Each structure stands twice: as structure tokens, then as C-alpha cells.
Amino acid sequence: MTRPDPDRVLIFDTTLRDGEQSPGISLNTSEKLEIAAQLARLGVDVIEAGFPITSPGDFEAVQAIARNVEGPIIAGLALTQADDIDAAHRAVRDADRPRIHTFISTSDIHIRHQLQTTREDVMGQARAAVAHAREFVEDVEFSPMDATRADVEFTAEVCRIAIEEGATTINIPDTVGYTMPDEFTAYLRRLYELAPELADVVVSVHCHDDLGLAVANSFAGLLAGARQVECAINGIGERAGNASLEEIAMLLHTRAADVGLQTGIRTTEIARTSRLVSRLTGYAVQPNKAIVGRNAFAHESGIHQDGVLKERTTYEIMDAQTVGLEANSIVLGKHSGRHALQQALEELGFQVTGQALNQAFARFKELADKKKQVTALDLEALVTDELRDDLGAYALLWFDVEASSRRPPHATVAVRTPEGEERTGSFTGDGPIDAVFRAINAATGSDARLREFRVDAVTGGQDALGETSVVLEVDGRTASGQGVSTDIIEAAGRAYVRALSNAQRRSRTDAAEPSAPELAPAS
Amino acid sequence: MTRPDPDRVLIFDTTLRDGEQSPGISLNTSEKLEIAAQLARLGVDVIEAGFPITSPGDFEAVQAIARNVEGPIIAGLALTQADDIDAAHRAVRDADRPRIHTFISTSDIHIRHQLQTTREDVMGQARAAVAHAREFVEDVEFSPMDATRADVEFTAEVCRIAIEEGATTINIPDTVGYTMPDEFTAYLRRLYELAPELADVVVSVHCHDDLGLAVANSFAGLLAGARQVECAINGIGERAGNASLEEIAMLLHTRAADVGLQTGIRTTEIARTSRLVSRLTGYAVQPNKAIVGRNAFAHESGIHQDGVLKERTTYEIMDAQTVGLEANSIVLGKHSGRHALQQALEELGFQVTGQALNQAFARFKELADKKKQVTALDLEALVTDELRDDLGAYALLWFDVEASSRRPPHATVAVRTPEGEERTGSFTGDGPIDAVFRAINAATGSDARLREFRVDAVTGGQDALGETSVVLEVDGRTASGQGVSTDIIEAAGRAYVRALSNAQRRSRTDAAEPSAPELAPAS
User: Fold this and answer.
1) What are φ and ψ of residue B196, in 5° steps?
2) ipTM tops 0.85
3) What confidence category does residue B351 fall into, taking pLDDT thresholds of 50, 70 and 90?
4) Lowest-confidence range among A313-317, B173-177, B232-236, B286-290?
5) Which DSSP symbol is given to B314?
6) What is the pLDDT of residue A519?
7) Alpha helix ranges (H) inside A371-404
8) pLDDT of residue B441
9) What's the rounded Cα separation, in Å, for the pair B311 and B466?
10) In Å, how far from its chain's centre is CA A59?
């Protein structure tokens, strides 16, 4: 890979790989496709779409993204084993620009305790993996896992081998979020000295936020010469997550005059991407989150408000419109027609026609009857809610609930099973939501247990849509589901049956025969 | 102030000042006292308890904290005006170790546009303010606001004046979250050169997270010589908030061998402090938040889980117990008595006796009837819920709700007014919660509008307590309230009437005669 512009930073988005590795997140293929399409609109350079060998579901999603999403490079992750790399290749090969990303740890703590092997073996595996990947694709990325806790000389040796075998990107991960900016700078400088070949490839950084330094460490990496940053929307990922894409992008944007590095990110797509990912993963963004938190651009103190009224830049270094907040003024009402809805959805980036448009229009009319103004945020929520419905899943048909502070709440529900049967169930619970959930368990014969439950309002206002997230434990594993409605009980019930459907779908795919070569489990 | 140990970093907590300046947070005095007491248990060195002149409520809370919370220095914030400093002094003077913190901007953008004055005037104001504060207390902190966007030479001149007049701490704020670690280091080094007197006082840093760099910039400040960090629990504060206290503390703790700086933080109190602040402010902590997020210590990927099972340190640089997660094994049940409850509460740091214990015991029994195991998290939630009830507030007496997917939901509620009257109201709404809220409006004659609504489960499990947060708009201002119950409708109703009570209390105190000298408004 050539680097025509030395000041151009490549944004490698790992929302669908490291981000999706967060507990309780289980996206289906259509949800992953929707996020990938939005990442392409956002202007990321690389989408790491998944880790194909880990499950048939992951494989299918990576393949669907490789086949359907245009623009970014589509990467699949793989351990060094040949079958792992084969699976990654089969998953990404239909992309315009496929990449295989292979990795092995270089830290002694990982080599001894996890891999239970030797440095020599790690060198051999790295060499074989990159060589094998290069048989399939020209664009190969190699990562020495846990590099920041590894011996820098050994890591440099492994990187040199990877480059010798044809790796075009070398990514230095701070896998456990341990390093500090100056330390990371010094580590990278030493690596450049020990492996001068790094000047001929793209050096990348991948930082975790365990000590709150993911963005600062990534930025230190760029200042030390890296030109790719691995990051995730809303900073999701293993444990405390990855460097937050929006913070990296807006740091480089806001301080461009002093730093002089550019990305290809269309900043006005940031807010929408953040909302989409939050909604589909069920991972809330805290109000004080930088860039995309609800209050990131709000001023509460009288002194600050006074300053901003006199001159915006007294307390604002960024404009909310730059990140796509308040940018959209779409407002529909009960008299808006099908065409107006279609146009509004197109403006939001959703291509909806035929039966899907009919369905979206029906939901829209239902909402417009209850809510005076239907905004862009509402439409986004409704359309993503529709994306969640698959064939072959449970559906909530109707419910009746009586709740009172003076007697226990009682619920009756009707559910359509994946087989098309209608079943009803009743329960008297501790609260109305609890009663509905237990009534659904009774109707479906499930013994799912609720682990987490959350409700957020999509917009402000008394008539706001409520967005509900549930995480269930089914047979020792977790599954999540989300639902949207102006009625919190309906939203909760929808989320619950979707989580049940997700759990069932996963147990089906996990039980699938691993005989097909692309479905072989990781060794 | 002397600095006996050059490696000791002072933790200055501004949760109750900058943190409380976040939109929608309105803590009452008993809530602020509870947080301050927990901050003392956590081991912070300084509690900035508020900005006394801004409102009678703020004044009262700072005074109550100064009088009741032992251990930390208690600081009150003040602009440079004499009456502002007078108010801060009256609020903090009863503390064992009072501090007055005064500030004025040194950036030209603030001087020109907000203060609409000259550099000469700023120097004069800084001199007068510090001199005036030193007439009252020995411990005076001065901050040149917006320092990182100010001319460093002018800022140094103002700092020298403040030190000459007796300031013992000089705090360098990155007010708008604009700086970058290397830039901040260079700025501070230059400041030390220009104002060598800084070596004789404590230098402090106060960083905001607008570009995701608050912790990294604070850390850069420490490496450049600062020995006080201003930070807030969960990183709350204006816009994207302040540096997160728990991230700073755990960074210094985890990397102590390499960095060599210590704090007085008892890390095992971190998780509880975070939960308390989140609960009382209504500000959720995102699951991927470093240190205190629900998933900060969770491993999802098979590779990571496998590694941790073989050897914990393969993927963990901190132990969850170090921050107080999973540390508490208190479990009570329906047969637990009053004494067991009192002991459990004491273990959690709550001193509850007499009528308060009776009330807590009644709530506990009610919960134990519904929930098999009552845990430390449940007790914390119940006790903090009790803290929210004031005399002279609205109370939800009972409610009846019918909700169905087949007809509009209907609610009837009874509310006791602050005057002791019982009033009922009914409404048919878009959803059951909406119907309850509007029925409460009907009962109380209020025209409050819902701006935000959120529900979280306190613990996992089908029988979990639900914790509800609402933000209302009443007469153009926002007010928040929280409620806890196993019944989501009850929790929501409680939160709503508390938000109404908070709004009413504030409009009462705002309307209070400013004739008493300590209640003079800011000029």
C-alpha cells in the first residue's frame, strides 16, 4: 500500500469486531450491514467487519458486508492458523478491497501462559500466517498482540518477519490498556529504530481505555509516525473499550492547524452514527461523553451561558453542527404522506421501498397519531426498530396489564412463535414490566432470566418514543434485544421477545454442523 | 501550605461544584452532604463543595458540608468581587480546614468578549481578590481561567501577583478542553520559567474532556510538576465533563512503579462512590466507561476469557476488588431483622438510627417480600432513595393504571401536596408512564413537561429494583428527580413528584429576599 499523503490518517473502524465483543451485544447480519453502510457514509477507511472463524453468524455478516458495502476496505480478523486465515479470506474476498488482519501475541506473559509456547514458535507462526494471507490478498495487516507489555526487541523482530512476508500494515496494540502517552511514544520510536522497514508500511495503533488514555495514546502514536488508528464508535469494545472514533476524528479536526493531520471522516455524520450504534448495541452513551454525549455541547453555568451568548468561542471549541447535531430539521406530522416519508428517510440515508416502505409508513402513521411532531430522531428509531424484525422470530401480538400500588400487577400477553403459532400466557409479578416478561416466558415456555433492563427516551417531550434494552440469560449465555414504542410496556415486551429470538437464533447457529469448511471452529 | 512529600498528589474533587453544573443535575443539601461524606471516606484531599454566591441553595449546602464533613479541606468558589469572596468565606469558615478558591480569566478572548475589560483590570482584580481572601483564610487557591488559550506571559504575570498576595495553590484550567498533552506540558514548563515562584506553591491542573484528553492532560500536568488534580467522580461536569477522578487515581495506582506518584485515595471506595454519584445526579455511567463502567472488568471474547482463566494478568492490569467491585457480600432476606439491617447499613457507611431506621426497615421488609435476596446494591439504592424525601414536598400516595395494546392506557393517581392536602387526578395517555405523569400534572395543577426519562435496574435479575430518572421542564428551567421500586410505574411516579418538588423548592429559594448579606446575588 502506498501513502500518497504523509499527513493523511487512516481511520480503521473496529466497532463490528472489537466493539461487538462487548458483553451483551449480539447484532444480527442486517444490523451489522446497517452499521457498516453508515460507517461508509461516515467515511472510515477500513471496516473490520468481524472475526469470521469464531461463529457462522460472524462469518455470514463479514461476507454480507464485503459483498454489499462500497467504499472502505473490508477487513476480517484471523489468528495465525491456516484454517482461520482461510475463513477470513472466504469472508472478505468479494469486497472491492479485501484485507486479512492476522495477529499473535509477542508478550512473554501471553506466550508463556496463554499460548504456552516459545518465542521461536511465535516467529514461525507469524511468518507462516502473513505468507499464507498474502497468497490470497495484497492487503495484509499484522498485529503483535499485547505489544506494549512485550519485549520491544522481540516485537521488532516479529514485525520485520511480517513485513518480509508482505504485510502492508503493522498494527501495534495496547491490548490491555496499560501504556501511557510518553511511554508509548518511546516504545514506537524504539520500534522504528529496530525495524527500519516500518517506514515502508503503514504503522497502526490500537489502544484500549482501561486507564482512560485510549485517545491520548492513539494520538501519541500518530505523533510518533503511525498513520492508521483503530477505533470504535462510542468507544465500545472489550472491557473499557477502544479509542473512541469520534474523539480521535474531532481532535484532529479541531486542532488541525496545530497538528496538521487529516482524516477522511465526514464529521457531520458522527452524531447519527453514534445514535445508530448505541441503539443497535443497546449500549448507552453517557451524557458527559465527549463529542456525542447529550451534554457535550450544553452549557449550564450562568457564567458560561453568558459568555456563549456574547461570543460563542468563549466556551466552545467546536460547533454542534460540525458533528451533525441539530443539523437535521426534518419534521413530519399526521398529514404527511408516503412520499414525504420516503424522502425524509432518503435524506437520513435509508433506502426504503415496496413492502418495507408500507410497513414503515404504517408505523409512522401510528406514531403521528400519538405525537404531534415526528422528527428525524423518531424516524431513525422506527426504521432501526423495523430492522430488528426477522422472519422466524417471536413476535408480541398484544398485551393487557393492570398495575396498581394497591394490588400486585397482572399481565396477559399473546406471542406468535417462530413456527407461526399464537400462544397466550399470564402472570402476576412485582411490577408491570416484570409481569409482562414472566407472562411471555409462560407463553413461550422459556426459562430466560432478566439480567439487565434499561429505558431511554428517543427525544425530549411527554409524547416521546421510549427505547428499551433488555439483556437476558438463556442457558448460561446472554442475549440482548431492543424495542421502541411510545408505550414503555410495549417497548419492553418487544425487546424481550427479540432477545428471546436472538438467543434462539444463536443456539441454532452454534449447533450447526461444523462440517462445512467455512464453519470450522477456532482451534 | 507545605508539601512534605514531593511524590504525593492532592486530589481536589469538584463533583459538587463543576460536576453539579451539569444540565439537569439539582442536588439538595442532604444529597450533597451524603456525597461529601462518601468523598471523605474515599480519601480526597479537597472537596470543592459549591459556588456559594450563585444561589441560597448552593450557599446552604457548602455551609452544611463545611460544618459536618471531617477530613478533607472544604473549598468554596468565588469570582474576584469582594462580596463573592465574602459569601465563599461565610460558607466555608466553619470547616476545620477552609479554602477560598477565586478565579478570573486571563485569555484575551474572555477578557475582551466576556469580561469586556482590560488586562490591567484583570491584574488588579486578581490582586484584590487574593488579598481579600487571605484576610479570611490561610488557604487560598487562584485560577487564571481559560489559561490554555491565554498568553502564557500574561498568565504568568497574573499568577505571580496571586502568589505575591498569598495564594497557596495556583490552578491552571483548560476550561474549554482544548489543549493536548505535549502542548500542556510545554505551557506549564514555560509558566514555571516565567514565574519561578510557582515552585513555592502547589500547582494544580483542571482539565475538561471535550476532545477526550482530560485524564491525559491532567497526567501531563503532573509529569510537568503539578501536585494537585481537579477532577470529578464519573468525570461529570460542564459539557463533556472534567477529568474522571477514578481514572486519575487508578492510573497513578496501576502505574505507580513506573510513575512514582501517590494519592490518598482508598481505591476500594471507588465503585461505591461512583454508584452514589450516578444515582443521586441521575447521570448514568456508560457500560464501557473506564474503571467504573459495568463492563470495565468483563471479558467477552473467547480468547480473552481463555487467557484470564489460565492466568489473570494476561488480560487484566487491575483487579476488580481493588476498586471495590464484588467486595461486598452482604445478603439479607425476608427473615433478617432490624439489627441485621442496621449492621449491614453501617458496613456500607450509613449511620441510620431511630425513626430513619424504622423507615428504612419498613422499605427493606417490603422489598424482601418481593425479592429473595436483598444485596448491598439494593440497600444502597433504598437508603439513597430515602434521602430524597424532604418534608414539604409532594408525595405519591397511590396509583391505578390500565395498559393494553388494544386501547389507550389510563391512570389515576393520588398525590399529597406540600401543604398536606390529598389530591387525585386521571389521564389517558400514549403509554402507562405518560398517563401517570399527566395524571400527576392534573392532580397538582402543574404544567411541567417531561424532557428526559430513563430506567436502570439496580442489580440483575427478574425481581430487580428499578431506578428511574426524570428531567422536567418547569417554567423554562429544568429539574430532575429519581425513584426506586420493583414496580417501574411506582419508581417513575416517585421520580416525577420529586422532580416537581425540586422545581418548587428552587423557585422558592430563588425568590427568597436577597436582603440577608449571605444571600446576595452575584454581580
Assistant:
1) -60, -20
2) no
3) confident
4) A313-317
5) G
6) 32
7) 376-387
8) 93
9) 36
10) 16
Are A289 and A297 in contact, with CB atoms under 8 Å apart?
no
Facing residues of A100 across strands?
A76, A140
B74 contacts B112 by C-beta, under 8 angstroms: no
Q: Does residue A111 contact residue A118 with C-beta atoms inside 8 Å?
A: yes
- Give the residue from chain A lying closest to B110, CA to CA: A314
Tell me if residue A229 falls in helix, strand or coil: strand
Cα–Cα distances (Å) from B108 to A32, A305, A382, B151, B160, in that order, read 48, 18, 47, 8, 18
Cβ separation A451–B432 shorter than 8 A = no
Tell me the one-letter amino acid at A6: P
Q: What is the 3-state secondary structure (H, E, C) of A239-260?
A: CCCECEHHHHHHHHHHCHHHHC
Taking CA atoms, A254 is separated from A257, A312, B19, B153, in Å, by 8, 15, 25, 24
Spell out which residues of chain A touch residue B296, defining contact as CB-CB under 8 Å: 210, 239-240
| Helix, coil or strand: residue B131 | helix
The torsion defined by the Cα of A214, A220, A225 and A226, in degrees rounded to 10, comes to 0
Of A22, A113, A216, the CB nearest to B213: A216
**Residue of B288, B373, B427, B456 for testing the chain A interface, max A β-carbons within 10 Å:** B288
Sheet holding A395-404, edge to edge: A422-428, A410-416, A395-404, B395-404, B410-416, B422-428
Rounded CA gap, A305 and A365, in Å? Answer: 39
pLDDT at residue number B98:
98
The residue type of B441 is N
B163 Cβ neighbours under 8 A, 6+ residues apart? B170, B195, B197, B198, B200, B201
The answer to whether A398 contacts B404, with C-beta atoms less than 8 Å apart, is yes
Residue carrying the nine cell digits 449511620: B351
Among the listed ranges A3-12, A107-116, B111-120, B240-249, which one has the minimum average pLDDT value? A3-12
Determine the distance in angstroms separating the CA of B408 from the nearest CA of chain A, rounded to an integer.
10
Count of all residues that appear for chain A in the document: 523
pLDDT for res B517: 33
Please tell me the distance from the alpha carbon of residue B1 to that of residue B168, in angstroms, as a whole number: 6
Of B303, B322, B375, nearest to B345 (Cα)? B375
- Per DSSP (E only), the strands in A320-465 are 331-332, 374-375, 395-404, 410-416, 422-428, 449-457
pLDDT digits (tens, 9 = 90+) for B281-316: 888 899 999 999 988 988 777 788 888 888 888 888
Decide: helix, strand or coil at residue B68. helix
Q: Which amino acid is at A194?
A: L
- Sequence-distant contacts of B332-340: CB under 8 A, at least 24 apart: B332/B364, B332/B368, B332/B373, B332/B374, B332/B379, B333/B368, B333/B372, B333/B373, B333/B374, B334/B365, B334/B368, B334/B369, B336/B364, B336/B368, B336/B374
pLDDT tens-digit map of A199-223? 999 999 999 999 999 999 999 999 9
Cα dihedral A161/A167/A169/A173 (nearest 10) = -50
Determine the Cα–Cα distance for residues B211 and B362; give it in Å rounded to an integer.
47
* Least confident piece of the model among A102-116, A179-193, A252-266, A385-399: A385-399
Residue A334 banded pLDDT, cuts 50, 70, 90: confident
Q: How many residue pairs from chains A and B have C-beta atoms closer than 8 A?
A: 361
Which residues in chain A have Cβ-Cβ distances shorter than 8 Å to B451?
A: 460-461
Nearest C-alpha neighbor of A295 from the set A273, A316, A314 = A316
Cell for A316? 466552545
- Secondary structure of residue A225 in the 3-state scheme: coil
Bridge partners, A173 (sequence order): A206
- Residue A372: pLDDT over 80: no
**Confidence check: pLDDT of A3 > 60:** no
Question: Which of B251, B267, B430, B451 best probes binding to A when mutated, by most A CB atoms within 10 angstroms?
Answer: B430
